[in-house]
Specification:
198 residues, single chain, binds ligand MTE, binds molybdenum atom, 12 strands, Sulfite Oxidase, Chain A, domain 2, mainly beta, five-stranded mixed sheet
Length: 198
């Protein structure tokens, strides 16, 4: 399958491909704060709101019609495992942001998910092509436990910055903290600087 390889992004942060304190796993462990939420393809929608010019809303079918691509990425969990060479297929954050028309005063982003999970990032950390809204892993639809129908991936951050079961993005004019960020995990979450806790 055709994909872009972005596994060299560690060079930008001056680190090795395997960040410090991480061990490689060939399995793909599941890490969720609760049960896998159910979703209804009839009513499911993905929304963008807040500090943007055009509020957006997509059904799952419509979302998959957006321009999309596949990328080979690494996945680093804050608890210490990394799964290298994941091929994710989806829509990039900049593609959506362009359609939304992000306001000049937007500085931060809150992601919202079906299970009530939230996570936040500075807008500048989201406006990167490797931040993707993915529905496929290694050519197969994402399983429910790994965030299907749609999840976010953030290969430049620990994986708690990538919500599974994503339902929307809120563009913010000030910083706010998400689920784990309120409970002591780092807001910046750079794996090469080992920003695990705040
Ligand atoms: N909606 C939601 N997204 C989530 C989580 C969660 O509990 N709920 N856990 C996060 C954490 S801590 C990690 S490490 C990754 C794990 O993804 P995986 O279960 O596919 O390995 O999902 C992240 N996204
Ligand atoms: Mo995690």
């Amino acid at each position: 399958m055709e994909y872009e390889d972005v596994t060299e992004i560690h060079e930008e942060f001056g680190g090795d491909r395997l960040p410090p304190g991480q061990r490689e796993t060939s399995a793909f462990p599941v890490l969720s704060k609760g049960d896998v939420p159910s979703w209804d393809p009839e009513t499911w929608e993905f929304r963008c709101w807040g500090a943007i010019e055009n509020e957006l809303s997509y059904t799952f079918d419509a979302f998959q019609q957006l321009p999309h691509e596949s990328q080979r990425q690494d996945f680093h969990c804050v608890t210490g495992w990394s799964r290298l060479d994941c091929v994710f297929t989806g829509v990039t954050f900049p593609t959506l942001a362009n359609r939304a028309g992000v306001s000049d005063d937007a500085v931060h982003v809150m992601f919202h998910a079906l299970d009530g999970y939230t996570t936040d990032l500075p807008l500048s950390d989201c406006l990167r092509d490797e931040v993707m809204f993915a529905w496929e892993l290694d050519g197969e639809p994402l399983t429910g436990e790994h965030g299907g129908p749609l999840r976010v991936v953030t290969p430049h951050k620990y994986a708690y910055k990538g919500p599974k079961w994503i339902t929307g993005i809120e563009f913010l004019t000030e910083k706010k903290r998400g689920y784990w960020e309120k409970r002591g995990y780092s807001q910046t979450a750079n794996p090469w600087h080992e920003e695990r806790y705040s």
